[in-house]
Amino acid sequence: MPIRLQVSIARQQLQLLDDGRLVQTFPISTAVAGVGERNGSGATPRGRHFIRACIGAGQPSGAVFVARRPTGEVYTDVLAQTFPERDWILSRILWLCGCEPGRNRGGQVDTQRRYIYIHGTPDTEPMGVPLSHGCIRMRNADVIELFDRVMPGTIVQIDE
């Protein structure tokens, strides 16, 4: 079994597994709205997913993304004060796609069309506490490290 990711919403952890062996555990932050698959729910979807795209290779730590494109900005406290309404997507994006039709793929429960990512967030944001708008947030250094170990097609299992 190749590299895969296991996300525990209850433990607020992401585990990197290689051939079924635990390689590393990262703290994360999932949705403040809890779990759910429906479009507009603001919840973190459950079930089997895969990484559809890895976005941000070569960008600096703290690079700001809007609509999956780097803006050319690097996150700072001054930038955060200038744009307090932004949901900061930083450093790298691992765009998820559901594998389970009717649960997390297709219709009103489509993870990919909901733009659910594993992504970096300001390092001032706490990990281990659900605070996102549906995505899985990680520390910038952690998401960069993870990005370098996965590829499109990598399986991501998200469980409560």
UniProtKB/TrEMBL annotation:
It comes from the Bacteria. Keywords: Cell shape, Cell wall biogenesis/degradation, Glycosyltransferase, Hydrolase, Peptidoglycan synthesis, Transferase. The active site is at 119 (proton donor/acceptor), 135 (nucleophile). It holds the Pfam family YkuD. The keyword Hydrolase applies. Pathway: Cell wall biogenesis; peptidoglycan biosynthesis. Residues 3-159 form the L,D-TPase catalytic domain. Belongs to the YkuD family. This is L,D-transpeptidase. The lineage of its organism: Bacteria, Pseudomonadati, Pseudomonadota, Gammaproteobacteria, Oceanospirillales.
